[in-house]
Amino acid sequence: MSGTVDTVASLPVRGRKVEQKQITQWVRRHVHRNGGGVLWIEGPAGAGRSRMLACAGNEAALAGARVLTGAGMARGRMTPLAPLLDALTTEADDFVQRLGKRAREETTAYWLLREIAGRLRELTHGRPVVLLIDDVNDCDDLTLLAIRTLTVQLAEIPLLWVLTSRSHPDVPTVRSLRRDLLARQAARLALPPLAPEAVRQVVVDLLGAQAALTEPYLSYLGGLPGTVRQLCAHLQEITPTGPNTPPEGDVSMPTVLTWLVTRRLDELSEGARELVTTASVLGDTVTVQHLAGVLGRSELTLITPVNEVVAAGLLRAEDDRLVFVHGALREVVSDTLPSPVRLSVRRRSVQIREQAGVSRVSLAAELIGMAESEDAWAGRILRDAAQELAVVAPGTATRYLKRAVELTGGVCRERQRLTAELLPLLWQTGEVAQARDLAREVIQTPPDAATHARACLELARMSSQFRFPQPENHIRQTYRRRDVPVSVKDQLLAITMLTRLLTGEIDETGGTVAGSLMRTRGVHPVGELTYRLIQSMSAAHRHNWTDAVRHSDAVAALVAQLDQGRAAALPEVAVSTSWRASLLHLSGDDRSALNMVDDALEEAERRGRQALLPLWRTARARLLLDSGQLTAAARELAAADEAIASTGLPFTGEPAALYTRARVAFHLGDDAGVEACAAQAGALLKSEEPQRRRAGAWVDLITAAYRDETLTVRQLNAAAAYVRRGFSHAAVIDPGDAVLLVRMALACGQREVALRIVEFIGSRVQHNTRLPLFEAAAAHARGLLDRDRAKLTEAVERYGTARPLLRAQAWEDAGVLLTATDAAEARACLERALESYEACGADRESRRVRSLLRNLGTKSVTGPGAPTTAPGTPDTGWRGLTPAELGVVHLIARGATNRQAAERLFLSPHTVNTHVRHAFEKLGIRSRVQLARLYLQEVDQPVEAF
Fold this sequence. Notes:
mainly alpha; Rossmann fold; Arc Repressor Mutant, subunit A; three-stranded antiparallel sheet; 46 helices
């Protein structure tokens, strides 16, 4: 086209007011001064370069200049000099024909350029000439050479060159031309993305009432007006029209978004398109270094395509990374690649990062989803990652190692070895039944003696926590093998002995296992601490509690020497910790005992060690029961039941848990709970395991006491065997249980049985003078037997505040004893008993004592849990908390979740979370477990159920 321009271009370009003004001033200044020059307009695809070029031509025509136009062709598929020939075609057809003939005849471009230069000189004799060439980045090499040469040769004539190009062109010759022209003082005009408001105005101009159709896609347009126009045209094409069609139409967003992204990718150069599609597979962010490695190119070669995609608004640079401007945009770009290509790119990415020394843990998370069968390389990475995570995240480690086992096809040695490594992870995370079944498979067809021994060891460890028969033949076989490491034998023998001790089989094992244990003890630290634990529990069985504490101290020292992360996962360490907490509680150090269990419970929950939760929940329930926190103990028992149910196997500590459950139900006056415990006790009495039978006999006694039933001598003796045992699973039998046994024997008229128990308690005191709780229980039992008020008063003083329920029982027993002789003193004792019972929430005892007080003539008796302030509300200002924070803490400390607390208080979960965080800061704590413990210790309000 020569001398004319489309008049539409004279209209204002929406969003380009500043750029249009700059072009107008530049063109008019050069035309009116009859001078030459070069203007380089650049921008990403869709930025409106052609429209701005038309504006420049229109201004030139209006100013009286002759306008010539030409354009490069996409991908360079054009004849040499085509853009310049197109520009000169309408000026002189004979010139173009002559030039074309010379181009076919000449072997060099020299004469061609001379002809074109001469013709341009002729055209500028009458008036200035403005030569517009669009898409220089797509011009052929000869045209680029002509522009480079002629802009220098014809600089003195009134010839204006207006050239447009994509930002950061990928063609070296175009980049070289741009650099040379700008170095020779060529003007440059960059077209930035349109502002969001300008984009919306363009949409309104194009679609009018249907402008709302584009709203979901505006963030993906990059502010490029050309892309906006393409989208509007596409939406008009696919949107139904008609009088009843809503403005929004019926448009599928994923379909339109895919179309839009595909168009944007087509507008990029090949190098930029390859870069952005590859980056989309690697995630929302990626480094140039890593991208270069995946593409197999040097980082320097990516400078141009990176600049292009950044200018196009697909990616942005943040520090040392490239980031997709929109997550959904990345997903759509990634979907343009076939699935096998995406998988190959991701795999290549993992390989490069592995070579760069990236942690296997970081690689495994991505690799687990794309590894293929019999992929040894992927299996090795997953295995290494599982070993690194086994301590801190056993759940994730289990998932990785499971996948590694799956990748190892068929039954082979390597698969069996991996399975043996998987066993401890499975049982830790609560998949105990699966771990048991896999372990039995391994020991049936072991790849080697060491793997066989380790599988036997893991089975023995699991059976210390959950009940299933141990493979005795395989264990004995392991003992005899010379190629099994002695350290493994040491641990296997120790844990086997411990399991039999916990289940009450120690008397039936004889000296065989004990002798073997003695021959190997001390070889491995875990075996040594297990042996010390066995000695401590055996000493407790003999009621030599001083030695029990001494051996437990040695166990604590050995545990401290182990890697704490790995040690926390071992059942030997868990049982030893629970046992030590029980001994501390027996010694009167209740706070240290509860802190020890709370820390272990918190660690197990944080790390996902589901298999250890029944042990810690049961231990915590027992400590709470003894300290008089009955409702909190009931809550812990419920949580323990859930943890046990999730494993699919019965818990070895079931008798100890049943004992605690029966006592809690007894004190709370829970009829249904007591009946459930009675049914379980009946099943235990039929067991072949001595410890379970003894526990059943004791729970049978508790339920009989609850029902006010009479027991036979045989039942009393069976219950006495439980008390004489000294411990149940990993917990000390409460010294106060002997007092209950004496009371029941006396109630049943069996004074001889009571006398034997009192003598046993006295003997226990003589051998353990450093344990005040034994002395208190002895005084209490003797006071019941002899109806001695002084002994009962002594028991009250010796119990102190450590055992509020036992202290209250001593007050009650003293009050009952004084009823016939001193009514006033009896009332005082009973009122103190009632006060303590109510503080603990012992409703059954509270009702009984209130009845006794009424019989003594007391007219007004405070009911259970009748607070002077609002129910469940601690004193205002506790530890500096606001009333709102106190209300939240009251619910959270009793087991409510943030959502439950929010519903109860009519607050948002966010507000509740803020209150909890502030309470943590003011109280100097870090967990809900600590919050519950502190609140219940210092405030001790009645618990509400959720």
